[in-house]
Amino acid sequence: MEGIEISAGDTAWVLMAAALVLLMTPGVAFFYGGMVRAKSVLNMMMMSFLAIGIVTVLWVAFGYSLAFGDGGNGFIGDLSLSGLQGLVGQFAINGGVYPIPALIFAMFQLMFAILTIALVTGAIADRTKFLAWGIFAAVWVTIVYFPVAHWVFDFGNEELGGGGAGWLANLGVLDFAGGTAVHINAGAAALALVIVIGKRVGFGRVPMKPHSLPLVLLGAALLFFGWFGFNAGSALGAGQVAALAFTNTMVATAAGIVGWLLVEKLRDGHATSLGAASGAIAALVAITPACAFVAPWGAIVIGLLAGVICAFAVTFKYRFGYDDSLDVVGVHLVGGMVGCLLIGFLATTEVNELGKDGLFYGGGWGVLGTQAIGAVAVMAYSFIVTLILAFIIKAVIGLRINRDDELTGIDVAAHAESAYELGDSGGGGVLAGAGHHSHGGER
Amino acid sequence: MKLVTAIIKPFKLEDVKNALEQRGVRGMTVSEASGFGRQGGHTEVYRGAEYTVDLVPKVRVEIVVDDADVDAVVDAIVAAAKTGKIGDGKVWVVPVESIVRVRTDERGVDAI
Q1: Do A272 and B51 touch (CB under 8 A)?
Q2: How confident is the model at residue A2 (pLDDT cuts 50, 70, 90)?
Q3: N or C: which end of chain A has fewer CB within 10 A?
C-alpha cells in the first residue's frame, strides 16, 4: 500500500489485545465450570476448549473470508480469502486502512468468533452429547456467526469504493465491539437451543448449586481482564478511542457489580459472590457495543442498569420454565439489549466524532430506532436459524446424553474423567488408589 | 467391651479430644459427618434461586472402651461437647463382641 507504514505501537497493542480476547474463552470455561456441579465441570470446560479447536480451523478455511471477504454482499462475504494466505504482508482494511497487518486483524476477529460460541455452552450444561456439541458449534459459526459478524463488523473495503460492507454496518448501527454479533447472538442462540434440548433432569426440584464459587470468580476475573482487549482492542490502534473504550469498560463494570449487589441485598438479604461476578459480566456485556460512543458517566449508567436489570432477568427462567442453566439469556441477551439500546440515549459525538448523538444529546429518536433494528435483526436471525439447526441435530444424532449418564455425571460418561480426587472415599485421602486398577497400556 | 459413638459439633472436637486424653483414652477414630435433625439447616441463594441446606456438618468420634470405663468416657464427652444449644449431638454405646490389634494379633481388652 502506497504511503502507509506499519505502526509498531498499534500493531503491538492489537497483538496483545487478540491474546487478551483469547484468554476470555478459558475465562468463560472457568466462569461456567464453577457454576455447575462437580460431576459435570470438565464437560462444561471442554465445550469451550473444543470451540477453540473447531472455530479456529474453520476460520482459516473459510470463516474469515465469509465474514470479511470483499466480494460478497450485505449479507455475507465471499471465499476469496480462504486459507488466509492472501492476507500475508497486507494491511488491515475495514472501512479504512489501518497501519496494522491484516493477519493480526484476522486473528483478533477469530477470538470473537470462538468466544461467541463458547458463551452459548452455559445454557446447555450437564446434558449435551459432546459430539452433538461439536457438530452444532461447527455449523452454527458457519451459518450464524460468520454472516452476522459480516453484517455488523465488516465496513467494506475502501479500495473497492466501500463495497462488501455488512448491511447493519451500512445502516449505521453502532456496535463497537459486539453487543449484537457476540452477545445478543449468543443469547438468542442459547434460548433456541434450550427450548429444543429441554430441561436438566430434576430442574427446579433438586438442588443445582455452583460447586466452586472461587472458580466462578477466577473466570470472571479472567473475563474482566480479557475484556479490555475485546473493547479497547476493537479500536484497532493504540490511541484516543482505545483509551475511551478502556475507561468505559472499567467504570461500567464497577457500576455493574454495585448494581447487581444492591438488588441482591434488597431482594434476597445478602450480597453474594456469584452476584458480584454476574454483575461484572452483565455490565461488561452491556458496555461492549457502547464503549467507544459514550462518556464515562454514560458508562456508569449503562453498567448500573445492566447489573440491576440482569439481576432480575436471570430469575425469568423459573417463571417461564426454560432451563437456561447458567443464564446465557439473562446475562448476554438481556445485557446486550440493554447496551445496544442505551446507545440510543447516551451516545455522543463529544467523545467520538465517528459516533452519533443519542436522545440525551439532541440526536432525536433515529439512533435508538437504528439500534433497535440491529438488535432485533440479529436476535431474530440467530434464534430462528439456531432453532432449525438444533431440531435437525436432535433428529439425526440426538442432542442429549441418556438419563442415567446425566444423573451419574457427564464427565465420566463423555470424557472418562472426573474433575476432583479430594475426599477420603474419592481416592485423594487415606483411600488414595484403593479401588483403582491400572490398565497400563492394555486398553 | 463397648463401642462409644459420639456425634458432636465440629468446633467441639478439640475439647472432646482433650477431655478423653485426660481420662486416659489413647485412641479414637474421627470422621466428618452430616446430620439431619432438629437443628435444621440454612438457606443459600444463588442468582435469586433459594436452596435449603438441611444437612448440618458434624463430627463422629468412635472409641472402643473396657466396660468399666464406659460411664466415665461418656460423661467426659458429654461435658466437653455441651454448649446447651440445639444441635449439640448424641452419644450412644453398643456392645462389641471382639477386637484385634492388627500389628500384634492381641485380642480382647489387650487390643484396646
Answers
A1: no
A2: low
A3: C
Q: Is the CB of residue B8 less than 8 Å from the CB of residue B89? A: yes
Residue listed under C-alpha cell 461488561: A284
Third-level CATH fold of B2-111: Alpha-Beta Plaits (3.30.70)
Cβ–Cβ of B46/A318 closer than 8 Å?
A: no
Q: Please check the confidence at residue A1 and state whether its pLDDT lies above 90.
A: no
Q: CB of B85 within 8 Å of any CB in chain A? A: no
Interface touch A318/B49, C-beta < 8 Å: yes
Q: In this structure, are residues A347 and A357 in contact, taking their beta carbons and an 8 Å threshold?
A: yes
Residues of A in contact with B47 (CB under 8 A): 274-275, 278, 311, 314-315, 327
CB within 8 Å: B47 and A207: no
Q: Which of A207, A314, A424 sits opposite B47 (nearest CB)?
A: A314
Complex-level ipTM: 0.84
Three-state DSSP at A94 gives: coil
pLDDT in tens, A232-290: 999 999 999 999 999 999 999 999 999 999 999 999 999 999 999 999 999 999 999 99
Q: How confident is the model at residue A3 (pLDDT cuts 50, 70, 90)?
A: confident
CA distance A196 to A259: 33
Torsion angle of C-alpha atoms A30, A32, A38, A42, degrees rounded to 10: -60
CATH of domain A8-403: 1.10.3430.10
Alpha-helical regions (H) of A80-212: 102-120, 130-140, 146-153, 167-171, 185-197
A219, A34 Cβ separation under 8 angstroms: yes
Q: What is the pLDDT of residue A44?
A: 98
Q: What is the pLDDT of residue A214?
A: 98
Domain ranges for chain A, please list them: 8-403
Q: According to DSSP H, which parts of B1-112 are helical?
A: 13-22, 70-81
Percent of chain B's residues with pLDDT above 90: 81
* Residue to substitute from B31, B42, B43, B47, interface A, most A β-carbons within 10 A: B47
Report the residue of A35, A272, A278 to disrupt the B interface, i.e. the one with the largest count of B CBs within 10 Å. A272
Give domain limits for chain B.
Answer: 2-111
Residue A286 grid cell? 452491556
Please answer yes or no on whether A268 and B44 come within 8 Å at the CB atom.
no
